[in-house]
Amino acid sequence: MIATLLFTAFIVLMFLGVPIGAALGLAGAVAIALANAETQWFGLLAVPQNFYAGLGKYPLLAIPMFVLVGSIFDRSGVAQRLVDFATAIVGRGPGMLPLIAIAVAMFMGGISGSGPATAAAVGSVMIAAMARAGYPASYSASVVAAAAATDILIPPSVAFIVYSVLVAGASVPALFAAGMFPGVLAGLALIIPAVWLARRHGMGSLEAQLPRPRFWRSLREASWGLAAPVVILGGMRLGWFTPTEAAVVAVFYGLFVGMVVHRTIGLRDLYAILREAGELSAVILIVVSLAGIFAFSLSTLGVIDPITNAIVNSGLGSTGVLALLIVLLLIMGMFLDGISIMLIFVPLVQPLMTHYEWNVVWFGAVLVFTVAIGQFTPPMAVNLMVAAKIAHVRMESTTRWVLWLVGAMCIAMVALVAFPQIALWLPAKLGY
């Protein structure tokens, strides 16, 4: 009965508009209190203990640093220089600006690993440029939101850091390597419908009239931004620093580029940057810590075992169970943010991963891929909210374009499920 109350309280609190983190913590605390009243062994001290335990993990130190990196590069002008360089390579023409938006967003993923941060950085540049070229604002917002979703797959990724904390045996370097090819696959899957839709509907009629940046000049100006992923990921691969230390290195590199090289960030801007990153980091980490209380309630009340047994004995088999989990994740992604989904979902599916002997690194890639789709799937699409706000359009107006992009990403995800080596080849090659 207490286990039923745990889920009921969580769902009711969400429908009442209580933030996800608070709903997780309150539901878990109520269940702990009731269990303590009945058995006298649970202990209310478990609430603060698990609040701290959910937060006191070394890999989580990287989250505020990578969030800060996203804020720094958002204001440093790197996105504009990368757009100019990409335009100099691919040229002008119908469908080229959407392709550039997706490519630049994927590259920005190798710097910050935060979808909303990339949606803001790329959207502030590309949505205005696409408007000048004759693309509808709702289409531009859809493309930018979908492109930014690839960022949680391409390393460094905040989502993979959270997953590594939740799942034993899933190291951050292995997960980062596993996300590289699926992230590229996702980007390629988005480019096809984005370019096709633009040409089919006659968008970008003015694009060919816009000037094409000079290659060597744009390369020179974009070189510091192009070097950022090399510094971050190359340093980790060479063993110069851990993923957590890499996040700190990325912060100082971004500050150097913004304040010394491009001089787009001044001392007065630092407070706003630190405040923005601090607020977003606080939201993420508070949700993580409160979810620790919820996860403790799940495991100690014996909720997970009956659910696992029911699924295993359902007769669906490994493939059927995996398909069911993906469908549930896609539905949850329409209403919850990615971090919350992982904190709720992973403790429940871990016994299934063990039972069916799924590779934890591959399953992490599948899970994060599914979460990425949810970042731009209405009605609660965080990337789409950011892009729609920049484009000054209602989210409802993007649906006709977003559905094509969601479909393309789903096809790419099916390929990842059918061919696990898409995620596992690079970690094995690198020796993780």
UniProtKB/TrEMBL annotation:
Residues in TRAP C4-dicarboxylate transport system permease DctM subunit domain copies: 8-422
Pfam families: DctM
Coiled-coil segments on the chain, per record: none
Membrane topology: Multi-pass membrane protein
Keywords: Cell inner membrane, Cell membrane, Membrane, Transmembrane, Transmembrane helix, Transport
Keyword check for Nucleotide-binding: no
InterPro entries, per database record: DctM, TRAP_DctM
Location of this chain's protein in the cell: Cell inner membrane
Protein family according to the UniProt entry: Belongs to the TRAP transporter large permease family.
The protein's role, per its UniProt record: Part of the tripartite ATP-independent periplasmic (TRAP) transport system.
Name of the protein: TRAP transporter large permease protein
